[in-house]
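Customer escalation, tier 2.

The customer says the design service returned an amino acid string that "doesn't look like it belongs to this structure." They asked us to rerun it and document both sides in this ticket. The original C-alpha cells are below, unchanged.
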C-alpha cells in the first residue's frame, strides 16, 4: 500500500488552539506505538502555527513533541502571553490612543491593545527552530508552512520550510515563499490585528495569518499533501446559533469577538465545504474523461475534527480567570458570558480553560477512533511492517 503524504491543518484561534493539543494527543494514543511523525506536511496559522512549529521541531520524536505541547498548554497563564499588569495594559492603550489622536509624530509606535513581548520570550525558550531543517533532511518531515497576512500587499503569505523540490507559488492574493522559519514568522502569524502588534519581515509588516486567508487548506496542497486532516476550533461546527432579542447596544468585547470569529472560523469552514464539493465532483467524473479533458481536479481525502461543545460557553465558565487589567481594557464586559465570551475564548490563556479544551479535544478524537484509524490506515500498515 502506498503511503500518501498526510497534511495537517492547524487553524488559528488564540487560546482556542489548546483544543488541538488534546486531539493530537489522542491521535498519538490511537496510532501504533512509535516515535514516527504521522504528518508529512504541516500548515499552521496564528496559535495553530505555534503548535505546528512545535510539532515540526520534534518531528523525529513525535511522542516527546506531544508531551512538550501538553506541558506548555497545561501550565499556561495569561501573563506568559501578554502583559497583564495595569502598567503594561495602560501603556499599550496610551500608545494606541496617541497614535490615533496625534498621528504621524508617533508613526513608529506599535498600535495594539496588548503587549505580547512575554510570548516572544516564551517561544524562544521552548521552540528549537534548528531542529526543523534537521527533520526535513532526515525525511521525518516534508514541509511546514506558517501563514501570515501582509498589511501593505493585502496578500496571504505562506512562509514555508521544506524539501528542496518544493517551489514558490503565486495565486490570486496568496503566495508561498521559501524561508528559514524563525521567531518573527511565529509572532507575525499570531499578531491579531489591533490586539497584538504587527511584525516586520523583510520589507513588509505582517499580521495574523487568518486575516484575508481565502483558502486555508491550499498551502498544504502546494507543499505536497495528498490527504488532509483539519483540526478546527469553531465549536459545535456548522450549527446555527439561536437569534436572541437584544435590548442593548453590543459591547466592544462582543464586536471584537464577532470580528475574530469572522477571521478565524469562517474561511476554514468555507474551504472545507469547497473541498468536499470538489471531492463529490471528482467522484462522478470518470478517470478517462478527466484525463481527456486535462482536468487538474483530484480527490483529497479529508478528515475534519471540531469541538463538540461551544468554546464560547466554556470560556464563559472560566470568565473569573480573566486578568483584571484585561477586563478594564475590554470596557468591563470581558467577564460577561454572553457579552464577552467570544473575544474571551481567544485571549484567556489560563490553566483551567486550556486544560478544559485539551480534555475536550482528547475525548472528541477518541470518540472518532474508527474514522482516525481509517484515515491513517496506510500509516498503520507501514508501522506494522516496520515492527
Amino acid at each position: 500500500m502506498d503511503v500518501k503524504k498526510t497534511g495537517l491543518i492547524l487553524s488559528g484561534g488564540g487560546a482556542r488552539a489548546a483544543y488541538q493539543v488534546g486531539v493530537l494527543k489522542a491521535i498519538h494514543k490511537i496510532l501504533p506505538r512509535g516515535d514516527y511523525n504521522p504528518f508529512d506536511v504541516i500548515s499552521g496559522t496564528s496559535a495553530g502555527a505555534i503548535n505546528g512549529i512545535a510539532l515540526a521541531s520534534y518531528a523525529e520524536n513525535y511522542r516527546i513533541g506531544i508531551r512538550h505541547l501538553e506541558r506548555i498548554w497545561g501550565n499556561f497563564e495569561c501573563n506568559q502571553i501578554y502583559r497583564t499588569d495595569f502598567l503594561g495594559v495602560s501603556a499599550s492603550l496610551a500608545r494606541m490612543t496617541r497614535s490615533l489622536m496625534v498621528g504621524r509624530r508617533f508613526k513608529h509606535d506599535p498600535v495594539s491593545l496588548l503587549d505580547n513581548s512575554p510570548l516572544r520570550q516564551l517561544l524562544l525558550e521552548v521552540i528549537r527552530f534548528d531542529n526543523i531543517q534537521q527533520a526535513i533532511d532526515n525525511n521525518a518531515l516534508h514541509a511546514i508552512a506558517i501563514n501570515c497576512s501582509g498589511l501593505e500587499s493585502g496578500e496571504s503569505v505562506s512562509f514555508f520550510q521544506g524539501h528542496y523540490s518544493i517551489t514558490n507559488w503565486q495565486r490570486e492574493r496568496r503566495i508561498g515563499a521559501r524561508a528559514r522559519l524563525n521567531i518573527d514568522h511565529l509572532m507575525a502569524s499570531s499578531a491579531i490585528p489591533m490586539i497584538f502588534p504587527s511584525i516586520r519581515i523583510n520589507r513588509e509588516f505582517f499580521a495574523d495569518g487568518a486575516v484575508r486567508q481565502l483558502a486555508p487548506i491550499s498551502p498544504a496542497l502546494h507543499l505536497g499533501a495528498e490527504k488532509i486532516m483539519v483540526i478546527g476550533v469553531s465549536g459545535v461546527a456548522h450549527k446555527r446559533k439561536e437569534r436572541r432579542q437584544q435590548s442593548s447596544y453590543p459591547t466592544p468585547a462582543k464586536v471584537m469577538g464577532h470580528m475574530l470569529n469572522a477571521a478565524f472560523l469562517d474561511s476554514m469552514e468555507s474551504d472545507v465545504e469547497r473541498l468536499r464539493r470538489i471531492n463529490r465532483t471528482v467522484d462522478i467524473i470518470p478517470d478517462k474523461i478527466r484525463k481527456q479533458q486535462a482536468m487538474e481536479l483530484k480527490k483529497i481525502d479529508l478528515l475534519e475534527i471540531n469541538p463538540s461543545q461551544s468554546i464560547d460557553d466554556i470560556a464563559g465558565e472560566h470568565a473569573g480567570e480573566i486578568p483584571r487589567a484585561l477586563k478594564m481594557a475590554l470596557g468591563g464586559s470581558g467577564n460577561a458570558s454572553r457579552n464577552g465570551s467570544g473575544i474571551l475564548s481567544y485571549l484567556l490563556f489560563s490553566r483551567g480553560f486550556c486544560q478544559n479544551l485539551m480534555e475536550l479535544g482528547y475525548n472528541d478524537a477518541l470518540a472518532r477512533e474508527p474514522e482516525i484509524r481509517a484515515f491513517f490506515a496506510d500509516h498503520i500498515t507501514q508501522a506494522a511492517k516496520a515492527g
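Tier 2 assessment: The sequence is consistent with the input. The chain has a mean pLDDT of 83. The first helix runs from residue 18 to 30. Sent an explanation to the customer and offered a walkthrough call.
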